[in-house]
Amino acid sequence: MPTNSDKNTRIAKNALFLYLRSIIVLLIALYTTRVVLATLGVEDYGIYYVVAGVIALFSSISSSLSGAISRFLTFELGRGDESQLKKVFSTGVQIQVILAFIIVSLILSVGAWFLRNKLSIPPERIEAAHWVLVCSALSFGFGLISVSYNALIIAHERMKAYAYISILSVFLKLGAVLLLTVTAYDSLKAYAVYLLGVSLITQACYWTYCRSQFKESRFNFVWDKELLKHMFGFSGWAFASYAVGMLNIQGVNILTNIYFGVTLNAARGIASQVEGALKQFIGNLTVSVNPQITKSYAIDDKNYMFQLICGGSKFAYFLALLFVIPLFIEAETVLTLWLENVPEYATVFVRLTLLTMLPQVLGGILFTAAMATGNIRNYSIIINGVSILTFIFAWLLFWLGFPAEVAYLVHLFIRIILVVLRVFLLKSMISFSPSLYFKSVFIRIMPVSLLAFLVPLLVLFVPIPQSFLRVVLVTLVSVPVTLLVVYCLGLTKDERSFAIGKLKQLKTRFYKG
What is the SS3 string spanning 364-376? Predict the structure, then answer.
């Protein structure tokens, strides 16, 4: 039985692999977004983003299934039940194949009708938009079928393989973008086809790796009525949570299209690109921690589970601050340097997106802790009932004539409320102490956030024009100040001692090398 120290070491190693992967993914994503925006133009980029948003509304099903299947696989791994593990995997594949057929059919019928009759798209670009819809739907279908394979890699904590396949995928996307620049055919149609090809190759890699590494990945038809009922029930409530989350993002994106047009969709698309890149980087910590939270629950090691909840939430938040602060301050300059043509409102949307990310970082690990129990009906009803207010209030405020920025402010306020609600709901689900979370997390992150934001702002009083030099200067001030404030105010005495010990180990290895 591995000790908690061994588990923490595994988490750290997995996080390292994922961080290295994210650095590569982030750099390539920044370049590809610039090229795609320049090649497609603001209008076609906005069309691609809003049509992809229609698909993304269905992707909540994929996310809920992935989370549900990952939970069941990780739970059985924690218990060491090999026969049940095989049964869970095969049952998951059966569910996905059925749902993939149903959902792709719905997208190609209902989605196509919605695209042609409800979205604000220039008539001459309807055909190209339909190509995007079809290719995105097929990509979604293949991705849904492979959910169990992806979940199996995460449940086994094989983050190295996960990282390598992700890096391959992003290089394939880079190749697709470079090919786009020399394509004589309609660029929007070509881009949709190229990304479909990338998706197929990526999913094939996941399938091949799982079949070669995990014997439980051999599909066998099984009919376990109780297991199907449990997994469908759990997936249903998980789906509700993911669906509301997607409605608040992609639903508001569609509302933006209806009330403000494709230009603001392009601006929201840029903000989403920034958010997606940062989420992927910051999420590496939670992806590494999540399996251990579920396994700890499976063997009833509540103390270690609570330690992971508090520590994971806090460190994920501090990691987010390192990126959010300099980007928030220098958003306009960064976008100008990154993109040849910055859409109107992109700077404002990026800044507001960065702020809404901070409470969401805390909510991610709390959601994993709830899912570990396998019984999330009441949790889902309460959380989703509050969360959906984001979409409702945004729609109401748009209808009343408020500007597009107001949707982000509503989202920020609701997400803060949700963090508090999640903590109190965990009290009844796993006997988690809200006072422990507030003392360990909230009281630590609030002074850190205030000081870490204020000090770098002083750089703006230095008479340096907006430029790459000022971005570098703000970053050089922001990162060390944030780390110092985190060390002094954000860490406990034991955490500071642990950090010093690890730094000494690295120093010793460096000099020996």
Answer: HHHHHHHHHCCCC
Residues 331 and 350: their CA atoms lie apart, in Å, by: 7
φ/ψ of 466, rounded to 5, equals -60, 120
Number of H helices, E strands in the chain: 20, 0
C-beta neighbour count of 344 within 10 angstroms: 12
List, in sequence order, the alpha helices (H) in 331-399.
331-338, 346-372, 377-387, 389-399
Angstrom distance (rounded) from CA 32 to CA 47: 17
Dihedral (CA of 103, 107, 111, 112) sign: negative
pLDDT in tens, 453-475: 888 888 777 777 777 888 888 88
Task: Determine the straight-line distance between the first and last CA of the chain, rounded to whole angstroms.
Answer: 33
Residue 463, sorted as left (phi over 0), alpha (psi -120 to 50) or beta, turns out to be beta
**CA dist., res. 93 & res. 335, Å (int):** 42
Q: Is the pLDDT of residue 513 over 50?
A: no
Quote the tokens at residue 264.
């603001």
In terms of Cα–Cα distance, which of 337, 52, 56, 140 is closest to 44?
52
pLDDT, tens digit, 9 for 90 and up, residues 242-283: 778 778 887 888 888 888 877 787 788 888 878 877 776 676
Biggest CA–CA distance in the chain, Å, is: 71
Spatial separation of the C-alpha atoms in residues 335 and 469, rounded to whole Å: 14
